[in-house]
From TrEMBL:
Domain Disease resistance protein winged helix residues, every copy: 433-509
Name by which UniProt lists this protein: Uncharacterized protein
Residue ranges of domain NB-ARC in the record: 173-343
Domain Disease resistance N-terminal: 7-98
Phylogenetic lineage: Eukaryota, Viridiplantae, Streptophyta, Embryophyta, Tracheophyta
GO molecular function: ADP binding
Length: 995
């Protein structure tokens, strides 16, 4: 579906569905449908063209017509869906009495005949409406109307000539790009042609960075050029013309370019000019791979040490060009420096004007570390007293058009939005239903997209609708429209994938959603709707944020397709009768009043496809089986789980059953054979014996379509249950995500699992086995040959050998590792050496970004070949050390270990030992070249740990972060945990051996 075309993308196939013989429509109705389809296809094409024109460039007349056409399409789809729901109808329980069955069938036939007559009349009515919309289009000749463009200067020009020295934080990026171009050879350029592609979100300063590198390096080159392409390069000839003029102004400024008939002649002219010259060319702001391929033809590789830099927002363009450099947002520290430097005319003056107050923090948060937004905000506040900042901040909306500077900034951001294909635009707009800074779970979001028909399920297609949704989600991440977030829940030991929307992007999509009447938002701050006032009574998607659900909100909500409630008070229940056409109903963090948790009328929402109730206990009626279109059910604390078995068409089921129910969820077996995702969390009392638990696990093998399985239990997985699970997993060939969690650890004999035939599909990506403690590392199934796509692994083992550690480090796609080693040995050394006989350069954990090693001491050991690491048991203490057994730290060595780790987590159980091991600093963090976050939990023994020693440990971590090139963020949390006697005994033994 495309938001610009309303519901036409899904309506047209449904009209074709009505023509099938099984619906037995009258001939006149069929003829009307055929005529309607032809007219609607033309309207759909016209709406697509309108959708490509930015809102501020549309005429008022065109905007009104497009709105009416979209609303008509929604009304038509509602009519067709209602017909399909009524014809299919809820299944009745079979009657044992023949006479009753006969009269029931007779009544159904009479009822459905009436429904068919009704649909025929409704189609007649809608045909007249379509005719009127089409006539208006012809009357006003919209096809001939030029968009209402006004003269405007590209807002980026204002920032192009900004001095790079004024932009705090540019120096580091500039030196990194120069190092890439020179390969670190003291800024000496080689004869080989070098290409760098700077890619990142709009407003990050890609152009400024390219200009800074260009200005610093262009001196020794024979000729140079810096040209901008833009989103719509309407004439590629002009780009080549601009390049030639900049390369040799004297020769080409008055040159008669009209002698060139086509692009190829210009390409040849440029190639001939470059010849053997050493050139430096920057191609700025390129959006299209086709445009790059054409430009690249002219940039001859003459082995003269030439440089090409391109800047782009699109990752696929950077991939095509090569030499990718991802420009990241500023650090919090640099954001603050930039803001005050722009406020007070230079960094030196700003050093005396940096109050660490709540208002400036809110300002910088609003800007989200985006340089363009920071500069814009600083210019708005310049000359204003600090007392006025709060008032100005509250009045600024990046989605409004009341301030030219804000509008220019948002126009730059909007370029990325309008470059999205239509199917991604509507998916992004849907995110406006969530509040600011909200964590949006990926899987839930994709199922919502599916329920809204943004993604049409094609059973004959190679990819499922969910897989298509995953691809679209990744595209939005790669285009920097959403920020990927992975949350590791320490309590449940479950990794949750999701995203957040940058504040500026959220302001943009909320503004567009309101203008186009796509989403209506009611929040506690405004107390009123933020939807467009041009369509009173037409609410299609309703979002409530931090509000109280009251019946007055629900007046005129009969056309609502999605209702999203975030952090709202619903103690008086939800007036479900208002939502007759609803498809998505999601309650986030809303606690039901005891009288309203049963949701009596929910069985009447026959269009419902997605139901999520989280935040309190809920009870579903047995008539829930009437919801034949419901595909996703997610309920927290479901009190009567037995009703789930009635929903045989479910594709996604997520339940937290808690302690209040017994294991009677599937008393007659698991009949939900369409399930693609299953998540069930059982409480302590869910199973009174192992038998129902085993029966449930055995029946999992019948879910052949299952791709995601998450099981959580407050009880241990017995060996019998483990073997049953192994048996079931062998039948689940489509599995991509397996997550098992038990609060009480269960021992697992690795040899028994191997003998039972434990194997996983090669395409599995997530394997999180928490609460199952293997006797040894299961290398028979976890290795780069068996699991080449494994990206996330959580594993607990009694012991791990050096060779097995290397097997783990060689997993080619591993990005997340949570390894827990339970060995009782006091000291066990494992190392990942830096020399690799296979010729892989000794680089282990090449793509790892998040690493948790617990409970081991981790020691980095530099050598002349690089750096490796060793682990040893230290009474559940994890340390980083630069010196051990006489091996001293070296500087400037190539990091062979975990070159992409962004986050490192560990615990300090002994403050004294940590301080002694590291001599107060020298943690070797510099070997983690990509490090961004350090998370440390410090367990304090009040009896022996002095406050001054704890502060010394915290200070050493901060010092290590300051000297690291990335200045990673250090988060330390203190826990009061007196040392157990056995740990004290070990500590004494430690002193004897090493002190």
């Amino acid at each position: 579906m495309e938001y610009a075309t309303g519901a036409l993308g899904t309506l047209l196939p449904k009209l074709g569905q009505l023509l099938r013989d099984e619906y037995r429509l009258q001939k006149g109705a069929k003829k009307n449908i055929e005529d309607l389809t032809k007219e609607l296809e033309c309207i759909q094409a016209a709406l697509r063209d309108v959708g490509e024109v930015p809102l501020d460039e549309r005429s008022e007349l065109l905007r009104i017509w497009a709105r009416d056409a979209r609303e008509m399409s929604y009304d038509m789809e509602d009519m067709v869906d209602t017909f399909l729901v009524r014809v299919q109808g809820p299944d009745e329980r079979p009657s044992k009495r023949k006479v009753k069955r006969f009269f029931k069938k007779l009544w159904d036939d009479v009822t459905k005949a009436k429904i068919r007559r009704d649909i025929g009349q409704e189609i007649n009515d809608i045909k007249e409406r379509v005719k009127e919309v089409a006539e208006r289009r012809a009357r006003y000749k919209f096809d001939d109307i030029t968009p209402a463009k006004t003269f405007s200067v590209d807002p980026r020009i204002a920032f192009l000539n900004t001095k790079a020295t004024d932009l705090i934080g540019i120096d580091k990026a500039r030196e990194e790009v120069i190092t890439k171009l020179t390969k670190g050879d003291n800024n000496v350029l080689s004869a080989q042609q070098r290409i760098i592609s700077i890619v990142g979100f709009g407003g990050l300063g890609k152009t400024t960075l390219a200009k800074a590198v260009y200005d610093k390096l262009k001196g020794p080159f024979d000729c140079t050029a810096f040209v901008s392409v833009g989103r719509n390069p309407d004439n590629i000839k002009n780009i080549f013309r601009n390049i030639l003029i900049q390369l040799d102004k004297g020769r080409y400024e008055k040159f008669n370019f009209s002698i060139f008939d086509d692009e190829m002649q210009l390409i040849n002219e440029l190639r001939d000019f470059l010849g053997n010259k050493r050139y430096f060319i920057v191609i700025d702001d390129i959006w299209d791979t086709k445009a790059w391929k054409i430009i690249q033809l002219a940039l001859v590789d003459n082995n003269s040490g030439s440089i090409i830099i391109i800047t782009t927002r699109k990752y696929e363009v950077a991939q095509q060009a090569g030499g990718i450099y991802r420009l990241e947002p500023l650090s919090d520290d640099n954001s603050r420096k930039l803001f005050f430097a722009r406020m007070y005319d230079g960094e030196s003056k700003a050093s005396n004007h940096q109050p660490d107050d709540e208002v400036s923090d809110k300002i910088l948060k609003k800007c989200g570390d985006i340089p363009l937004a920071i500069i814009t905000m600083a210019s708005l506040l310049e000359g204003k007293h600090m007392e006025e900042w709060s008032e100005i901040l509250n009045s600024i909306d990046f989605g409004s058009k009341e301030n030219q500077q804000v509008e220019d900034t948002m126009k730059i951001i909007s370029f990325s939005y309008y470059d999205l294909p239509p199917h991604l635009r509507i998916c992004l707009l849907y995110l406006s239903v969530f509040p600011e800074d909200y964590f949006i779970e990926k899987d839930a979001l994709i199922w919502m997209w599916i329920a809204e028909d943004f993604i049409v399920h094609k059973k004959q297609g190679i990819m499922s609708s969910f897989e298509i949704g995953e691809r679209w989600f990744s595209e939005l991440v790669n285009r920097s429209m959403i920020q990927l977030v992975e949350k590791w829940d320490e309590g449940s030991r479950i990794l949750v994938h999701g995203c957040q929307v940058h504040d500026m992007v959220l302001d943009l999509i909320c503004s567009i959603s309101s203008e186009e009447n796509f989403v209506t938002i009611l929040d506690n701050k405004e107390g009123a709707s933020s939807s467009s006032s041009s369509s009173p009574g037409k609410v299609y998607r309703l979002a409530l944020h931090n509000n109280r659900i009251v019946e007055s909100h629900m007046v005129g909500m009969g056309r609502v397709r999605s209702f999203i409630s975030c952090d709202c008070d619903i103690d008086k229940g939800i007036p479900l009768s208002s939502f007759t056409l609803i498809r998505v109903l999601a309650i986030y963090n809303g606690v039901f009043g005891r009288k309203h948790r049963h949701l009596k009328h929910i069985q009447n929402l026959l269009h419902l496809r997605y139901l999520q109730l989280s935040g309190g206990e809920a009870e579903l009626p047995e008539e829930i089986g009437n919801l034949k279109f419901l595909e996703t059910l997610h309920v927290y604390r479901l009190l009567n789980a037995k009703v789930v078995s009635l929903l045989t068409q479910l594709r996604c089921l997520r339940l937290d059953l808690g302690n209040s129910v017994s294991a009677t969820i599937f008393t007659d077996g698991i009949k939900l054979t369409s399930l693609e995702e299953l998540e069930v969390c059982f409480g302590y009392h869910a199973f009174k014996s192992q038998e129902p638990w085993r029966r449930f696990v055995k029946e999992l093998g019948s879910l052949k379509e299952l791709k995601v399985l998450r099981l959580g239990s407050c009880n241990a997985f017995s060996m019998e249950v483990q073997i049953d699970l192994v048996e079931s997993l062998r039948s689940l060939g489509k599995m991509e995500h397996l997550s098992l969690h038990a609060y009480w650890s269960s021992s697992a004999d690795t040899a028994t699992w191997e003998a039972a035939g434990f194997r996983l599909p090669r395409h599995i990506r997530y394997l999180l086995l928490n609460g199952i403690n293997f006797s040894g590392f299961p290398s028979f199934c976890i290795n780069r040959l068996c699991l080449p796509n494994l990206s996330h692994l959580s594993l607990s083992v009694d012991a791990i050998e050096e060779q097995e550690l290397q097997i783990l480090g060689q997993l080619p796609e591993l990005r997340f590792l949570d390894l827990k080693v339970e060995s009782t040995a006091e000291i066990m050394v494992c190392s990942a050496a830096t020399t690799d006989p296979a010729g892989d350069g000794g680089r282990f954990f090449k793509k790892l970004r998040h690493c948790t090693l617990n409970p081991w001491e981790v020691l980095l050991l530099p050598s002349k070949d690089g750096v490796s690491f060793r682990m040893r048991r230290v009474h559940a203490t994890v340390l980083l050390g630069s010196e051990w057994n006489g091996v001293s730290s070296g500087k400037g060595l190539a990091a062979a270990l975990m070159p992409r780790v962004h986050k490192l987590s560990f615990k300090v159980f002994s403050v004294r030992e940590f301080k002694d091991e590291n001599h107060g600093d020298g943690l070797c963090l510099e070997y983690f070249a990509s490090l961004q976050n350090i998370n440390v939990k410090i367990y304090i023994d009040d009896a022996s740990d002095a406050e001054v020693e704890v502060k010394e440990v915290e200070a050493s971590l901060q010092r290590a972060a300051r000297v690291h090139p990335n200045h990673p963020l250090v988060e330390t949390v203190r826990y009061n945990a007196p040392m157990f006697p056995e740990w004290k005994a070990w500590a004494a033994r430690y002193d004897e051996l090493y002190v």
